[in-house]
Amino acid sequence: MDSLDRINSNLFATVNGLVPIQELRNLSNYFNKLNYREAADYIESAGIDLANFYFKRDDPFACFCYYRDFVLIDIPIFSREGLESFRILELIHFEEGRIENCLSQGDFRTFFYIIDKRIALLAYEKLFDRIPDQDKHETFWFVYSRCGLRLTDFPEEYIRKILTYRPEPLDLPGNGVYLEIYRGQGDSISTPIYLEHSWTLDINTAIRFAVQSDGEGRVYKAIIDKKDAAAYIKRKNEKEIVVFPSLLKDIEPLKLLSLADLKPDLHRLDIINRYYYYEKQLKKEYFYRPEGIHGIMHTRRVLLLNLILGCLQGYQERFINILCTASLYHDIGRINDNFDPQHGIESYRKAQQQGLINLLDQPDQENLRYIIENHCISDKLAREHMDKYNLPDREESEFLFNSFKDADGLDRVRINDLDIRQLRTDYGRKLLLIARQLHNNFDLFFQ
Predict the structure, then answer these.
(1) Helix count and strand count (H, E) for the chain
(2) How far apart are the C-alpha atoms of 54 and 286, rounded to whole Å?
(3) Residue 219's Cα: distance from chain center in Å?
């Protein structure tokens, strides 16, 4: 197999840019400032070869390093005092010991997990013949996922060669021939979407990448034939699909609203003032853990999402009042952050006991009770519970319940557990991007 350092030297820029520390003797400015001789004597007295220490021209934060075989260690200051303070020589012995232990046992999985990612690909090349054939494919894609490289950084024939070592078809979900994949891109990304190689099976991941840099972005969907997926990388739970861009089909942007899209409607529909009216009724003492994942900020986001859903779709005012009141108190009965199907009942009971619910119309009161008490159980079970309530219009009650559950469910982006298939309304699905934006920067909505 051809060595990548001959194919594309840019992949190994870290190593190629190293200058042997001994050459600093020829640069008086560096040599005089660093007390080179004292540091060199300290290293050599410990039995470590000075030839493995380098100056890094392109790193202002760690200008020096130790590099030998499969060990790369940054060194902030090349002086005896600096080496002692950061215990560099001890770290060298430790890293070389555990790397050697992995190699002697043939434990390449651990080896590529602990090796510095900057030299992981070079190590893969050096060790290629020692890696068992059945592990070559998986190992390469693990290294690839750590190194921050793109498929286009490699010659296509190199990747094709890697694919010949795949021992079996990829473990992709679904029974069909085709796969729906997603990609999120911030507005600052200049690469055309049809040239992108990295996609995901998880729309939450795509949305997170769309808004992580500048708060705005787009989410795209594409189709590929399962057999055309070069890799399926599950690292960091991102469910990454790597594919040659030429094999992408039916690329299209998802029709998702962003906060920028809402700006014209904020004042027209009085959403901000409505939000403040309800939000001022919130108090930290209502919550067992106000700063937790079911605390004040979660409640604020659910309140705002309910207002967005209701106002932009022209809900009746009493519907909006029910949904917003449910938002305020739906989690105040929680006493933990775990799965707790009883907390809805406890939340309504607590709200009643503390005189927090002020709806006078009986049908609205009963709808509110139904929503709060059943929001934390399955939809199927919630429908079965409808007979326990005095609901004069079951269709209306189910409509309100579904709308609230979508607003509450959209904020599952905060725990990276939003399943688009669980959303109940078409409009709720359009708010996926907004839900992530509100989680990343809630105050952005009010600017």
Answers:
(1) 21, 10
(2) 59
(3) 14
Total-model pTM: 0.73
CATH (residue range 259-446): 1.10.3210
**Residue 27 token pair:** 């640069």
Placement of tokens 């003797």 in the chain:
25
Distance CA 81, CA 48 (A): 17
Angle (CA) 329-335-339 rounded to 5° is 90
Q: Mapping DSSP to helix (H, G, I), strand (E, B) and coil, where does residue 181 land?
A: strand
For residue 362, give the amino acid letter: Q
pLDDT in tens, 198-214: 999 988 889 888 887 55
CATH architecture of the domain covering 178-253:
Alpha-Beta Barrel (3.20)
Residue 379 gets the label, from left (phi > 0), alpha (psi -120 to 50) or beta, of: alpha
Q: Return d(Cα 220, Cα 417) in angstroms, integer.
A: 20
pLDDT tens track for 371-390: 999 999 999 999 999 999 99
| 67 close to 115: Cβ distance less than 8 angstroms | no
Q: At what angle do helices 317-329 and 362-374 cross, to 10 degrees?
A: 40
Q: Is 132 exposed, middle or buried (CB count within 10 Å of its CB: 0-12, 13-18, 19+)?
A: exposed
Integer Cα distance of 447 and 445 in angstroms:
6
pLDDT in tens, 395-444: 999 999 999 999 999 999 898 788 787 899 989 999 999 999 999 889 87
Closest CA to 165 of 128, 134, 121: 134
CA angle 63, 144, 88 (to 5 degrees): 30
> Contact at 8 Å (CB) between 376 and 333?
no
Question: Tokens representing 243?
Answer: 């594919």
Residue pair 343/372 in contact (Cβ under 8 Å)? The answer is no
Helix (H) / strand (E) element for 437: namely helix 432-440
Numbered ranges of CATH 3.20.170 in the chain: 178-253
Determine the residue type at 437. Answer: Q
DSSP for residue 290:
T
Amino acid at 266: L
Q: Where in the chain is the domain with CATH 1.10.3210?
A: 259-446
Tell me the two tokens of residue 46. 């410990």
d(CA 14, CA 127): 19
